[in-house]
Amino acid sequence: MSTIKIGIITVSDRASAGVYEDVSGKAIINTLNDYLISDWDDVYKIVPDEQDIIEKAIINMADNEKCCLIVTTGGTGPAKRGVTPEATEAVCDRMIPGFGELMRVESLKYVPTAILSRQTAGLRGSSLIINLPGKPKSIRECLDAVFPAVPYCIDLMDGPFLKCDENVIKPFRPKKK
């Protein structure tokens, strides 16, 4: 069996230009390393807040790199250049709005501005794409909330079996009869 591939896309004009280090993408990698026992490799990219570039990065990770999961960070707020949800919706076959709904509910426990967030999730082929906020603390809070559903979603798409450290995160999988 080949190693599982997970895509991480940081959407940031400044990080893509080298103005500052990408801490958000690294926060996703660190969180997934905490969660997953399965061997996995990241397919990592930093892109500017340009819808066509974001779309191309997602398409490449889903169609060519065969990532079962693609996690984006950044570009989900109301700023004019925040277009990650639009890019995600443009390339997905189907949307799964429950991910964004749960992330906003979780974030509201910490900040009242969570209602401004436009995170979403969708499916492209055999890939699950999840949009996360840009702050590392918020990334972990949101992933802690939604990740229990991720392995089963990937199972349903005939993707690889994601084995988790259940002392850190407990995935939900229905009991087999």
From TrEMBL:
Domain MoaB/Mog, first and last residues per copy: 7-153
Gene3D superfamilies: MoaB/Mog-like domain (3.40.980.10)
Protein name from the UniProt record: Molybdopterin adenylyltransferase
Keywords: Molybdenum cofactor biosynthesis, Nucleotidyltransferase, Transferase
GO molecular function annotation: molybdopterin adenylyltransferase activity
Enzyme Commission (EC) number: 2.7.7.75
Associated pathway: Cofactor biosynthesis; molybdopterin biosynthesis
InterPro entries tied to this protein: MoaB/Mog-like_dom_sf, MoaB/Mog_dom, MPT_Adenylyltrnsfr/MoaC-Rel
